[in-house]
Amino acid sequence: MDALRSKPFDPRKAAFWEDKEPVPFLFFARVMDMISNESGRLVMTEILCNAFRTVIATTPQDLLPVVYLSANKIAPAHDGIELGIGDASIIKALADAFGRKEDQIKSQMKALGDLGLVAKASRSTQRLMFKHPPLTCAKVLETFRSIAKESGKDSQEKKRSRMKSLLVAATDCEPQYLVRLLQAKLRVGLAEATVLVALAQAAVYAEQPPVSSSMLPGRLEEAAEIMKQTYSVLPIFEKIVPILLTDGISKLPEVCAFTVGVPVGPMLAKPTKGVSEILDKFQNTVFTCEYKYDGERAQIHYFEDGRVEVYSRNAERNTGKFPDVTSSISGYKKPEVSSFVMDCEIVAYDKESNKILPFQVLSTRARKGVILSDIKVKVLIFAFDLLYLNGRVLLQEQLVRRRELLYQSFIEKPGEFQFATATNTKELEEIQSFLNDAINHSCEGLIVKTLEKDATYEPAKRSNNWLKLKKDYMDTIGDSLDLVPIGAFHGRGKRVGVYGAFLLACYDPDKEEYQSICKIGTGFTEAVLEERSNTLRKHVIDTPRPYYRYGETLAVDVWFDPVEVWEVKAADLSISPVHKAAYGELETSKGISLRFPRLLRMREDKKPEQATSSDQVVDLYRAQKINHRSTKNEDDSS
Ligand code: ATP
């Protein structure tokens, strides 16, 4: 495998199989092992790029499964296909495959802290009776997909037997990575962006005639950008990989464009603390302020044949939740509109009193299978963007144009379908009073967007061109944080029998780890505290996960698996010697912590890995410093 690091790199030398033979899973497992020993992003990218080059040179038809495994995915996110297995199931499969007792496995798991390592150790202590044919990457992916498809009665058993069939055939370090893939956590520090960059670079190296060495650095950079851009609008490796192999990377933007039926990750906003910060950031820029409605983000796709799909903030199919939206949406479009993709916020609405209802009311609606005639909570759609119209992709258009087309193509119906209320004023007082109007209309605040320049739609990006201003947070840190409880402290006094406080963490997607950020014991009603304690008690683990970072002095009583996300408000952020959020980013050997955190609510729409990231924590800390400074200056001048 050292061949993967040799310079100049010869793709064929790294292969230990013949051309056109299926790529062994062992190759993938060893590549992951190599990557896990590295911490630098550039080296990781280089190793993965060389692995992809090896596959392209020998067995190009296996590039797709190898890419899928590297991205730790089995299907595009919007297909909603999941393996649907937990640690308990994997432990059973391991026991079956390696002839061990479940208890033995559990206690070894305590000692090693990682089920993948237990799997590896189990294989190495077991004598092999039969020699199974070697696993291939294609076979592993295919089996994962079959596991995901199992449903109904006996499905857990069938899933386990498929897992077992893979485990008994695994050798060397294969069991370790099989198990981690099954847990959907490779934990080698490989972020999705790295996989995309490595794939783009491998495609450049494979170009014929070869790119000259003087052109290479520029070409690699350009290719990475093309790949990221393409994937953000069409996150489907089945479409991307074949084009790379036949036509090369330059063809991607033309062939793999945004299309109806494939949601893009929504564009997101950065938090701000006040109107003056907005004017500061957007000076010399034309911008618009819109009401920030407190409901649920929805991307509505309308196909030429009249079909409708609704996708969530996580680009997941959410159509079953909104039969009222799917049945009514065509009634708001003008006759000349044949297909569209619209970005909007769906809010709960009381038609009697003509009032927007709080977010919590909407969240009482079932997530799928809602029947039109059973609907009690009515909704109102607030449209604020148009991404596609009559076969034309609008992502690259400026917001001013997209909004014009939105206004031209649809007709408002009060109480059912409206455009987000907006103003284009630049005056501080007017924005301030617009903000007050928004609050009086049951909105959370404003979203302020660039209009004419740097105003394209940036899928799946927290953009500098969209700023959010939440009234509630103006006296705190500008935004709430979405954090994951990873541990707790036993309650005392009035709180005996429940947890008294919890340890919360943010998530670092690059390092794939949860970093502690604060203890929290405020903001809970008795009922909520009991409910959370009861739920989390089911997820207690004996030792903290190896991917938890926390100060040893915290002396947590129990640890949990990362299973839920809580929205938390705090007074401010400070540099901490104990907590590990964004560890070392601002000061060596120190992290960031929250002061006076209080619980707001559960975020049922977010997965733990979508918690506030450590980069966002750094941004909030920096913004707070700037704001402190500007308030101080204002104070000084008065
Ligand atoms: P984020 O989506 O930024 O991670 P979040 O899910 O906690 O954070 P908020 O901080 O409340 O959401 O703010 C962003 C959300 O506001 C958007 O994702 C969207 O659902 C909602 N929203 C409401 N009105 C608008 C609007 N006019 N333009 C854009 N988004 C809006």
TrEMBL record:
Domain (ATP-dependent DNA ligase family profile) ranges: 372-508
Main location: nucleus
Statement: the UniProt record of this protein carries the keyword Transferase: no
Keywords for this protein: ATP-binding, Cell cycle, Cell division, DNA damage, DNA recombination, DNA repair, DNA replication, Ligase, Nucleotide-binding, Nucleus
One CC-aspect GO term: nucleus
Pfam annotation, one family: DNA_ligase_A_C
Keyword Zinc-finger: no
GO terms classed as biological process: cell division; DNA biosynthetic process; DNA recombination; DNA repair; lagging strand elongation
Top-rank EC class of the record's enzyme: ligase
Catalytic activity, as annotated: ATP + (deoxyribonucleotide)n-3'-hydroxyl + 5'-phospho-(deoxyribonucleotide)m = (deoxyribonucleotide)n+m + AMP + diphosphate
Coiled-coil zones: none
Any GO MF annotation of the entry: DNA binding
EC assignment: 6.5.1.1
Record PROSITE patterns: DNA_LIGASE_A1 (PS00697), DNA_LIGASE_A2 (PS00333), DNA_LIGASE_A3 (PS50160)
Cited InterPro entries: ATP-dep_DNA_ligase, DNA_ligase_ATP-dep, DNA_ligase_ATP-dep_C, DNA_ligase_ATP-dep_cent, DNA_ligase_ATP-dep_CS, DNA_ligase_ATP-dep_N, DNA_ligase_N_sf, NA-bd_OB-fold
Subcellular location(s) per record: Nucleus
PANTHER family attached to this UniProt entry: DNA LIGASE 1, DNA LIGASE 1/3 FAMILY MEMBER
NCBIfam families reported in the protein's UniProt record: dnl1 (TIGR00574)
Family to which the UniProt record says this protein belongs: Belongs to the ATP-dependent DNA ligase family.
Name of the protein in its database record: DNA ligase
UniProt source species: Selaginella moellendorffii
Lineage: Eukaryota, Viridiplantae, Streptophyta, Embryophyta, Tracheophyta
